TrEMBL record:
Keyword Flavoprotein part of the UniProt annotation: yes
Pfam name, any one: Fer4_15
Protein name: NADH-quinone oxidoreductase subunit NuoF family protein
Annotated InterPro entries: ComplexI_51kDa_subunit, Nuo51_FMN-bd, Nuo51_FMN-bd_sf, Nuop51_4Fe4S-bd, Nuop51_4Fe4S-bd_sf
Superkingdom, taxonomy of origin: Bacteria
Gene3D superfamilies: 3.10.20.600, 3.30.70.20, NADH-ubiquinone oxidoreductase 51kDa subunit, NADH-ubiquinone oxidoreductase 51kDa subunit, iron-sulphur binding domain
Cofactor(s) the record lists: [4Fe-4S] cluster; FMN
Family: Belongs to the complex I 51 kDa subunit family.
UniProt keyword list: 4Fe-4S, Flavoprotein, FMN, Iron, Iron-sulfur, Metal-binding
Keyword match ATP-binding: no
């Protein structure tokens, strides 16, 4: 039985990716083959031609042409060379559930697309990387077992090896370089330098890397052929698309809809009005005003015209009962805590951005201060995380201009922060504190140079310390080891429990966020987690 945390499924128009899900909670292999038939292998050139004909793009956010990825891997591997097909199911974005839905309820459609590509490339194996719980991973593992059992009993399933790998769930876990590192047994953070998976990916081999929905769409394209595939959707962007609608919607769901559908119709299906704004594209996306929502359509081109990016198909209406600026501050603080901490813009810049927008939400900051902090991180990061966070924050400044003026004048807009924007529920992480032996300390100040965000020096050069989050423990130990007077030591402390959703934030001295009467270190995750969407198997026609 599938737990209630799996999102419900709705649809507008024909059922393709979601076919059969109104009758089955999960499509096993016999049910999948009844709906879609046995997958026939196709030559690489034919598959590339298919993908080019419908301009198939990746559905993970970057919208990179899939045919170019196929060709790049084939060219790098060369004749007879090894390659790998990697399915990115590490859905680190808290507001997205479409990949989890596909892997949990319709895993064989995803596997069909991945195996199809693997056979055409002559790949060594298919790797499915999942994150965010045992449900999706167990469903995919069961699907792989079903295929093996079918082969044993004389079935015609492909014998390309399929490996399922669980990776740590973090916001950055779905970034391509971070995912490849995690699959290779390394720390799942972006590599710092841009590495094309098509050149060197899993085990250093050329790797076809794309997200879960992309492979499911690829399977449908091979099943239907380009002409039938393009019977729905727009001429430039044919087919259907999966959207995750949550936030202030009365009925959050994963929705399959043809491209070109008005955004207002999608919101109406979920009983959600535009409210004070709609976030499109997730936490690296942008806010649309209520006026823009009325004319926006679901497509890459349509969202670009409206001033947003479709990204991974995330739609989060805010509603009217929560403080928009407070919600944006929650997300900015979460994104600062989710960084890899390996470059200056993430390690230093994103906490500054979070502090600046939290101060604005308390009516004590300024728009100029937020913009200055954003300019420091833009186009300077080791990965896209700083730029995506900057886009979200700048969009919030534009979308909530009236609310910002009210906060600056009165200190609040009068509405509580209800935690409408989804956040993951996290277990408490270890935190550390630096302690000093004052009989040894000589005020060299090297600790402040090595850890400027956690160490302040007084007028005499002696340090005071703030709590250090777990992901910075390595740098803190380095400061301890390099102290010339051997005056420092690092001690673990118990981190504060997550605060209740919607409790007010206020900024106090030394960059510490306070919620009610408790203090929360500036890099800890603030805000609680919105409940996952419940209910499965519901459709709308």
């Amino acid at each position: 039985m599938i737990p209630a945390r799996v999102p419900r499924v709705l649809r507008m128009g024909p059922a393709r990716l979601t076919a059969g899900l109104d009758h089955c909670r999960r499509l096993d292999l016999p049910a999948h083959r009844t709906l879609h038939g046995v997958m026939e292998p196709l030559e690489l050139g034919e598959l590339i031609s298919y993908a080019n004909e419908v301009d198939m793009r990746g559905r993970g956010g970057a919208a990179f042409p899939f045919a170019r990825k196929l060709r790049a891997v084939a060219d790098t591997a060369g004749s007879g060379g090894e390659s790998v097909v990697l399915v990115n199911g590490a859905e680190g974005e808290p507001a997205s559930s479409k990949d989890a839905m596909l892997l949990t309820r319709n895993p064989h459609l995803v596997l069909d697309g991945a195996v199809l590509a693997a056979e055409a490339l002559g790949a060594r194996e298919v790797v499915v990387a999942t994150a965010g719980g045992e449900v999706a991973e167990a469903s995919v593992a069961a699907a792989v077992a079903e295929r093996r059992a079918a082969n044993v009993s004389g079935g015609a399933e492909s014998r390309v090896p399929i490996r399922v790998v669980g990776v740590e769930e973090r916001f950055i876990s779905g970034e391509g370089g971070a995912l490849v590192r995690a699959v290779n047994g390394e720390e799942g953070i972006p590599p710092g330098r841009k590495r094309r998976a098509a050149v060197s990916g899993v085990d250093g081999l050329p790797t076809l890397l794309s997200n879960t929905e992309t492979y499911a769409q690829f399977a449908l394209l091979a099943e239907y052929g380009p002409e039938k595939y393009a019977e729905v959707g727009t001429g430039k962007e044919p087919g259907t698309i999966l959207l995750t609608v949550s936030g202030g919607a009365a009925h959050g769901a994963v929705i399959e809809t043809p491209t070109g559908t008005p955004l207002a119709d999608v919101l109406a299906l979920c009983e959600a009005g535009p409210g004070d704004g709609v976030l499109v594209g997730g936490y690296h996306g942008a806010w649309l005003s209520p006026e823009a929502v009325r004319t926006a359509v679901i497509s890459r081109e349509g969202m670009k015209l409206a001033g947003a990016t479709l990204g991974a198909g995330i739609i989060v209406p805010l509603g009217e009962s929560t403080c928009p600026l407070g919600e944006a501050a929650r997300v900015a603080s979460y994104l600062a805590a989710e960084s890899a901490g390996q470059c200056g813009p993430c390690r230093l810049g994103l906490p500054d951005v979070a502090r600046a927008i939290c101060a604005l939400a308390e009516g004590t900051g300024s728009v100029d201060a937020v913009r200055r902090s954003v300019r420091v991180v833009e186009r300077r990061g080791a990965c896209f995380h700083p730029d995506g966070t900057a886009r979200f924050v700048l969009s919030a400044l534009d979308a909530f201009e009236t609310e910002i003026a009210t906060h600056l004048e009165h200190g609040s807009c009068g509405r509580p922060v209800r935690g409408v924007l989804p956040m993951p529920e996290r277990a408490a992480e270890p935190e550390y504190r630096l302690e000093v032996d004052w009989s040894r300390c000589q005020g060299h100040g090297l600790c402040a140079h090595l850890l400027p965000e956690f160490v302040d020096l007084d007028d005499y050069g002696f340090p005071s310390f703030r709590k250090v989050p777990g992901f910075m423990a390595r740098e803190a130990r380095r400061a301890v080891d390099m102290c010339p007077a051997l005056a420092l030591r690092l001690a673990q402390t118990t981190s504060d429990a997550p605060a209740p959703v919607g409790s007010p934030l206020r900024l106090v001295k030394n960059g510490v966020l306070r919620r009610g009467g408790e203090s929360v270190p500036r890099l800890t995750r603030v805000g609680g987690g919105a409940p996952r969407i419940s209910g499965v198997g519901e459709t709308a026609r």
